[in-house]
Design goal:
Mean pLDDT: 88
Low-confidence stretches: 299-313
Shape: elongated
Oligomer: single chain
Number of strands: 4
Radius of gyration: 24 Å
Helix content: 40-55%
Largest sheet: 2 strands, antiparallel
Structural class: mainly alpha
Strand order of the largest sheet: 1-2
Number of domains: 2
């Protein structure tokens, strides 16, 4: 773990007289608040793991980088004040003055960006080496085989999330909801289970790809107006540098955003129809549910699954 100034200086810039004892509580807090939900006890356990030396060094560097930056982010509001029985006060002297709030916020945003960047890279390394990290793979894996869109790469193939595992994990509740609403009412459970976990034929893979793209587009449409994610012309990602007081700012629904949501829903609807049509054109290839993987509608004709109201799901 990071328990000396010398180790800490490898990951963030601090002065030689920096008091590590005052900083240690924030390392523990960073582990609890940011690291454990993604990597469990890896921060405290990595030094004792018997794995490939190069891999161990890489993972140690990434988890310590994340821990140090998250901890300093938590520490910054307090590192220029003193607290005693009489209360709290700013520490000032003739030779130095406190930085402005604007400077403080810029520094804290950069700390968050650096920490989250290291965390995303760490998750990618862990995902690629499950045999070296069986506990993580068992309890914190970023692969979710209970979904059609079961991984970062699966989502990335349908919409750009900048290959971010944290963004994919943050999208999980919406992915689950969209799959239930979008797929569960159109395809039988046996067929969906087969697509998620079965030995897939070429026909299966084509349909799964259509459905994955439908889910991805509908998911992005749903979260566009929630304000949690940064929506750009090139993709979507978590607002990694948003400070706590900035995270609950409502998104203004303008015409450009509305058009984007409408286009995403139209894409999802089209991919869903393509999957249904492909199954109908190749009935012999889909034998689940007694050869009827598509749930028949009670009304005449095939109705679009996605509508503008999906934003309100």
């Amino acid at each position: 773990m990071i328990n000396t100034v010398e180790i800490l200086k490898q990951y963030i810039s601090v002065s030689p007289n920096f008091e590590i004892d005052e900083f240690t509580p924030y390392l523990k807090k960073a582990d609890r608040e940011f690291l454990k939900k993604y990597v469990g006890n890896l921060y405290s356990k990595i030094s004792g793991l018997s794995i490939d030396t190069d891999l161990k060094e890489q993972v140690t560097d990434l988890v310590y980088t994340a821990a140090a930056n998250f901890a300093y982010f938590l520490f910054t509001p307090f590192n220029s004040i003193t607290m005693d029985a009489s209360g709290m006060a700013n520490v000032t002297s003739d030779n130095r003055s406190n930085i402005t709030m604007f400077q403080m916020n810029d520094i804290r945003r950069e700390l968050l960006r650096s920490a989250h960047s290291a965390m995303d890279e760490l998750l990618e390394v862990l995902e690629a080496n499950p045999e070296s990290f069986p506990d993580w793979h068992e309890n914190y894996s970023t692969i979710y085989n209970q979904y059609i869109v079961n991984s970062t790469s699966a989502f990335q193939s349908g919409y750009n999330i900048h290959n971010s595992r944290q963004t994919y994990l943050a999208l999980q509740p919406s992915i689950q909801l969209i799959e239930d609403k979008l797929l569960g009412v159109t395809f039988c459970n046996e067929f969906l289970k087969h697509l998620k976990t079965g030995d897939l034929s070429t026909h299966d893979k084509i349909v799964k790809d259509y459905l994955a793209k439908a889910v991805v587009n509908a998911t992005v449409a749903k979260v566009c107006a929630e304000g949690v994610f940064e929506i750009t012309s090139t993709g979507i990602k978590m607002k990694f540098d948003a400070l706590p007081y900035e995270q609950n700012i409502a998104v203004q629904m303008n015409e450009q955003l509305k058009n984007k949501i409408d286009n995403l829903n139209a894409n999802a609807d089209q991919y869903s129809k393509m999957a249904v049509e492909y199954i109908k054109e190749n009935p012999a290839a889909f034998t689940q549910c007694n050869g009827k993987p598509i749930i028949e509608k009670t009304t005449a004709g095939y109705k679009p699954i996605i509508t503008k109201s999906i934003v309100g799901i």
